Amino acid sequence: MNKIFAVAAIAASLALSGNVLAHGAKPKHGGIVQSAGDLAFELVATGSGATIYVDDHGKDLSTAGATGTLTVLQGAQRTEWPLQAGSNNTLVMKGGARLAPGSKAVAAVTFADKKSVSVRFAIK
After folding, report:
1. Would residue 54 be called left, alpha or beta, if left means φ above 0 and alpha means ψ between -120 and 50 degrees?
2. Cβ distance 121 to 43 under 8 Å?
3. Which of 22, 43, 90, 95 has a CA 20 to 30 Å removed from the CA of 105?
4. Which residues does 19 contact at the CB level (< 8 Å), separation at least 6?
5. b vs e for 107-118, b when ≥16 Cβ sit within 10 Å of the residue's Cβ?
């Protein structure tokens, strides 16, 4: 009897783990997706800097009034760039930051409701 419960518990956990892994894992804009809390952040390099798209369970989350900083680490070099709310669900970093392969980036974001989130990206 205990074996049946053990097998059922393992089967249920395997079935449910696929849904957890799939949550927010696919980029919508060709960038790198990371999760922090219930939010998904997608970092996309642009010609003039970078854009971060914010989703809450697959729905765009308004970034109106949000501010933050994007810290880019390339080896021993560390640069910080301000993030400003863009249109809809975006945070925009303008400037000459280069998101080179092998570098890391950390976005520290404070939303209009004063909730703060920090999310890390590894640039491939």
Report:
1. beta
2. yes
3. 22
4. none
5. bebebeeeeebe
pTM passes above 0.85? no
The helix/strand/coil state of 114 is: coil
Sort residue 115 into left (φ over 0), alpha (ψ -120 to 50) or beta: beta
Give the residues of the chain that fall short of pLDDT 70: 1-25, 96-97
121 with 104: CB under 8 angstroms? yes
Q: What is the reported pLDDT for 17?
A: 38
| Nearby residues of 22 by Cβ (< 8 Å), 6 or more positions away | none
Q: Residue type for 17, please?
A: S
Positive or negative, the CA dihedral 86, 92, 117, 114 is: negative
pLDDT recorded at residue 25: 58
Which pLDDT score is estimated for 16? 42
Q: In 10 A of CB 106, how many CB atoms?
A: 15
